[in-house]
Amino acid sequence: MFRWLTGSGASRSATARMQAKIPAELWEATLHAAPYLAALDEQERAQLLQRAAWLLASKTINGAQGLAIDNQIRLTLAAQACLPILHLPVELYAGWDEIIVYPSGFLIPRQDADAIGVVHEYMEEAAGQAWDGGPVLLSWDDTVAPDSPGFNVVIHEFAHKLDLYAGDADGTPWLEGHAGLAPRRWRQILAEALEALRCQLDEIEAALPPGLDPESPDADPWYAALPLDPYAATDEAEFFAVSSEVFFVDPWRLAQAMPAWYEQLSRYYRQDPRHRFTSPLPSQRFQP
Question: What's this model's pTM, rounded to 2 decimal places?
Fold first, then answer.
């Protein structure tokens, strides 16, 4: 179902009332707390504030497991969540009404089928989850203290919402109205970039010393050579979400490693975050 059929969120007047309630000092502190937000120019900051006010007027933010939701949490989540739609219609986030915030990582049920078709059910710890037509779940600890370069759980989950806007999560968001973006070409470039990442991942895993657990921190130096977190190789939806994180948080890293895919994202989001950074972040340079 198209998301706009279930409503477009807060009205202009409700958004204006919410924006008037946002303390200027706290908003500035929110922007300066994240380099990729602090780098926005004055026009972008004003646009982001309006988008954030719309989100806060449209969505209910609830704490889980005893987490008390204060204005810092609200503004941090709203600013990060609205960066992807800075130049996109807010209606792309319409059709659902709740954000649930956990103090830290939380458990979600998973199902996997093995090689012979037996389905295994288990619980997996997650930093975020986006439900189709439902809420976004986030870990507050992972929002303010990410554990890896380029990681941003809020952008990740809201990229899933963009992906889900008009159909299944398949790595192809709603492209109508984007001049120069054709779904067929988008999927082709996505597939090529995803396959290249998977090949790199295979090479790294083949080079791991015998007996080294690939899930252990000891394997991190090998995986650090990848342009994206290995989770991006899961499928097209995760590739889109993970690469969207890096696109905004460490754009030079993605542009150097996957220039064609970076160009597609830049056209879709109608932004080129490289202009906000003079060079790759010193601690996060990608070495091919």
Answer: 0.89
